[in-house]
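Margin note from the TA: students keep mixing up input and output lines. Inputs are the sequences; the output is the structure of the whole complex. Example:
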Amino acid sequence: MLDISELSRESGFSPSKLRYYEEVGLIRSVGRRGLKRLYEDEVKTRISLISLAQTAGFSLGEIKETIGSEGRPDLDGTVLAAKADAIDAKIKELTALRDGLRHVMNCTAENHLDCPRFQRIIRVALTKKQVDGKRSKKNPDKGRRN
Amino acid sequence: MLDISELSRESGFSPSKLRYYEEVGLIRSVGRRGLKRLYEDEVKTRISLISLAQTAGFSLGEIKETIGSEGRPDLDGTVLAAKADAIDAKIKELTALRDGLRHVMNCTAENHLDCPRFQRIIRVALTKKQVDGKRSKKNPDKGRRN
DNA sequence: TCTTGACCTCAAGTGGGCTTGAAGTTGCAT
DNA sequence: ATGCAACTTCAAGCCCACTTGAGGTCAAGA
């Protein structure tokens, strides 16, 4: 059992952030000591998980949907699998990007965007993403979601 | 040379997004055909790069700072190296997260947050992050930036 | 008992990254 | 010459993830 300031100190999350997460149902407190919220130790793992998932680019909504509001809501296997696959895809993109940057560092081309090697690296990373495929016919300014 | 609708179609970025990027100096057009902006082909690579960098969690500001407003502003090697390292760190986190999720999928523990294997995976991912170290003394609600 | 300081709630504000909408301009086809 | 679709600008709006601020409450110590 920890209060909010302990949890904040140990997790590196500001108290306001912790309260906010509780408000949106990502974590929960299990009571009060006076006014102070009390958290179970478990919540530390939960917070770490949330932090990682955010790094992976998931929204709080997606995270909640994946890990549930309580610990239990038996994390649906297919959801988890989908997220794991999404992360895999992201890892590939990041790897390509990193390689691209490292290449640029010791590439002598004056304009790196013209460097064929660089372009290939970037393009390869995105062909995976191109599963997004095609969408709206015309393009009267509307469209896509990224 | 392409106009905005062609670029939009080929890149999957909405016209408004392209105009916005131009406004903030991430891309540039090289003239007009009538009213229409004209872009060089180079900008496609640039856009791909921006997209990847966003996936990696960088803000538009950071991206601009890294790849410059024009193609040239000779991408500072140390900045690039730092970004590459940051991406490496992120890859490690994502890998751990993915492994964690995959583990949960065929872990029989009723509450996965209690599963020691899972906890270890998560913890390992974050110890890398703990370079963030310590900060403010007290914790009167102020503090940190994540 | 009184103060103090760390917590509390709730509403409003912030910054990033765009999108939307109104009003105007343009080139091309009729 | 006229219409119209596809652009243009500019300001305002929106969603997300929080932070900030005002005003209130509590419990531990002087």
